[in-house]
Design goal:
With 264 residues, the chain is an alpha+beta fold. The protein contains nine helices and eight strands. Strands 4-3-2-1-5-8-7-6 form an eight-stranded mixed β-sheet, with helices on both faces. The chain starts with 12 loop residues before the first helix and ends in a 6-residue tail after the last helix.
Length: 264
């Protein structure tokens, strides 16, 4: 009796992962598309990762070589915190794309250090790189920037390729949801993809506003420290709802109107 043709059909990736992982893949692919849509991507460089629900030490990240606008749910690579590939994507595997080592070093360190963090976003935008190179860092000069009044800083010591850098990176992030990598760029984290994206969007706006104000050469209006501290506190977990959660479904609807292929 001849073999059934069904025996040779390879199940789609969606059929080979849990529903929870597939949703995480959709959210992460959407985040890549949104970072590009809002002008925060850098061709194939940089990385966004999300923890795989129910799989200890596993997270999803982009295949190094794909543009953010190309990324889909099935094109993401699953790796562990040691950088081992657990599941290769369907499309990029034909092109030999792997994982950016700097992405694994940065994201693996944070995911391993904190199980509460689900998503990590790292960017190299020109406003982020500019502010990261200023001795003053990010100034609490407006309400949005005051959200990051106690942001962490990580001094530059070369391209993040050495595992020895991980401990200090985690230490400098601390309990913050954002980190400025000196002379490098920006990083945000969140318990959900929506939270991490919201933080990055607001951090990027803060950097742009600061550079625009400083470019005028005029004296900046200083806000009393007590007011800065109170404003910062209003943005902290437990004070108000987590930022980004309410907006995330709307952002997905926006992508669905523009190009729903991120869900593939």
């Amino acid at each position: 009796m001849p073999d059934s043709p069904d025996r040779f059909i390879i199940p789609s990736l969606r059929d080979r992962v849990s529903p929870e992982e597939w949703q995480a893949r959709i959210d992460l692919a959407a985040c890549y598309r949104l970072i590009d849509l809002y002008g925060m991507s850098d061709m194939a460089a940089n990385h966004i990762s999300v923890r795989v629900p129910g799989e200890e030490g596993a997270f999803l990240i982009n295949a190094y070589g794909m543009l953010y606008e190309e990324i889909t749910a099935s094109s993401l690579v699953k790796i562990d915190v040691q950088g081992n590939v657990l599941m290769r994507p369907e499309f990029p595997s034909q092109l030999g794309y792997g994982v950016n080592r700097a992405g694994f070093v940065i994201h693996g360190a944070i995911h391993e250090a904190s199980h509460e963090i689900a998503c990590v976003i790292h960017t190299h935008t020109w406003p982020g790189m500019a502010v990261s190179s200023l001795e003053c860092g990010l100034l609490p000069m407006n309400q949005t920037a005051m959200r990051f009044a106690k942001i962490g800083y990580h001094d530059y010591d070369g391209v993040v390729l050495d595992l020895a850098m991980q401990e200090r990176l985690v230490r400098d992030l601390g309990d913050n949801n954002a980190l400025i990598l000196r002379n490098h760029g920006l990083l945000t984290v969140g318990k959900t993809v929506g939270e991490a994206f919201n933080a990055m969007h607001r951090l990027e706006l803060s950097c742009r506003a600061q550079l625009a104000a400083q470019a005028t050469g005029q004296k900046l209006v200083e806000v009393p420290q007590a007011v800065v501290d109170a404003t910062w506190n209003n943005y902290q977990p437990g004070t108000r709802r987590p930022y980004g959660v309410m907006e995330w479904p709307g952002l997905l609807r926006k992508l669905d109107r523009l190009d729903p292929s991120y869900r593939d």
